[in-house]
Specification:
One of its GO terms (molecular function) is hydrolase activity. By secondary structure, the chain is of the alpha/beta class. Helix content is about 50%, strand content about 15%. The longest helix has 24 residues.
Length: about 400
């Protein structure tokens, strides 16, 4: 599914940003006109043009707010938030780049300005975690106790983005929704400098502890959704946190080991693959120069794992596998697959086969217009199917 760009990574990221138009996070013309100005495969051009659009929309938001037009201000702030997030996306090659905090900070602040103008029950929450706290948002579908869906992203998403991707759909269907950022994500990596960890149960259990104390939550109807890399993280947590009533892996991910990915690249080139050799460094650098997806993946890995080089990134991702773990999951699991997933092809099936408890496999296809990674561009359909499954699982839970 190519849009404007021949470059697959740029096309997909455009689809991701533009897809939130269905939930108020984008306007299609704004996205297309921005994309037309971007130089193909150029990270700086991507940043500059999305920032230009975000700033313009932000000014419209401020002007509308000043004039008392709350509806327009809300809409402009929501779109500005998404555009700032998009602008910041490819900056992680230099973790010390001041634009990372500045641009991401604008994405968060404009989103929070929009929140004050939304007719929703919401709270900005902090969840006790080890010797610090995790940031999040709790959205309530009503005043009565009800089921709650915990949602976290993966390798690159933010809690603000998840409002468009999942929260609106959850609230419409009567689910309270708690979105949070853990190690390696959002504010936790950018402000607290806490990198990813493989034992995600240490992250999710404090979140469940927090929810168990909330009077709005039915404690045996807490479900967990992990998106993208979260398709590994959420099942990992569910293997050890048995208070979860259901787990959704969107999309399923059995392992995320950069060493295996890098070795695959080396195998294509022929010969041995020694991460410590200058020849390997030169080879990887040449691939990164040609392939924006690989370049971004390695640069973002260094950023989110606090890895100084590829060898360190490989070492830090080695434990990210559900081998010997998936079979310990007791709650029902939904494993989603995107037919043409460019990121994790074949991974959902590996996860599904490893599960020993109740499980469902849900494949999204090109015929559905939902074949891209995490079904971007078809989120209305994806959320419809996912929440139908969750409704059935939690209904059965009540009747047991």
């Amino acid at each position: 599914m190519k849009i404007i760009f021949n470059d697959q990574t740029f096309s997909f990221k455009l689809l991701r940003t533009m897809g939130y138009a269905a939930f108020g996070g984008a306007d299609i013309g704004e996205c297309l006109s921005t994309a037309y100005r971007i130089k193909e495969g150029n990270f700086e051009s991507w940043y500059e043009e999305w920032l230009r659009t975000a700033n313009r929309v932000h000014r419209e938001a401020d002007e509308s707010s000043k004039n008392g037009n709350k509806i327009s201000a809300r809409d402009f702030y929501l779109r500005a938030s998404n555009y700032y997030r998009t602008a910041e996306f490819f900056l992680h090659g230099n973790p010390l780049d001041k634009r990372i905090l500045e641009t991401w900070g604008l994405s968060r602040s404009t989103f929070r300005q929009a929140l004050t103008l939304l007719n929703l029950h919401w709270e900005i929450v902090t969840i006790p975690y080890e010797n610090t706290e995790l940031p999040g948002y709790l959205y309530l579908a009503g005043n009565r106790p009800g089921p709650v869906l915990i949602v976290h992203g993966g390798y690159d998403s933010t809690a603000e983005e998840l409002y468009f991707q999942v929260v609106i759909s959850a609230l419409e269907r009567g689910y309270h929704c708690l979105v949070f950022e853990g190690p390696g994500q959002g504010a936790v990596i950018r402000e607290q400098q806490i990198p990813f960890r493989h034992d995600w149960e240490a992250v999710v259990t404090p979140v469940v502890d927090y929810l168990a104390k909330r009077p709005e939550v039915i404690s045996d109807k807490i479900a967990l959704m992990g998106i993208s890399l979260g398709g590994y993280l959420a099942p990992r947590a569910a293997a050890y946190e048995h208070r979860l009533a259901a787990c959704i892996a969107n999309d399923g991910l059995f392992s995320f080991q950069v060493g295996a990915i890098a070795a695959g690249l080396g195998g294509k080139a022929g010969g041995e693959f020694d991460l410590s050799s200058p020849e390997t460094e030169d080879f990887i650098a040449s691939i990164m120069a040609q392939d924006t997806g690989i370049r971004w993946g390695i640069e973002n890995g260094g950023f989110t794992f606090s890895a100084a080089n590829l060898e360190e990134l490989v070492h830090k991702t080695e434990p990210f596998t559900l081998e010997g773990v998936a079979e310990q999951i007791q709650c029902p699991v939904l494993v989603c697959e995107a037919e043409h997933d460019h990121a994790f092809a074949g991974q959902p099936e590996r996860l599904y086969k490893a599960l020993r408890g109740p499980k469902t496999y849900m494949k999204f296809t090109a015929e559905d217009s939902a074949e891209e990674h995490c079904h971007f561009g078809a989120l209305k359909l994806a959320n419809h199917r996912i929440f139908n499954w969750l409704d059935q699982v939690l209904t059965n839970k009540v009747s047991e």
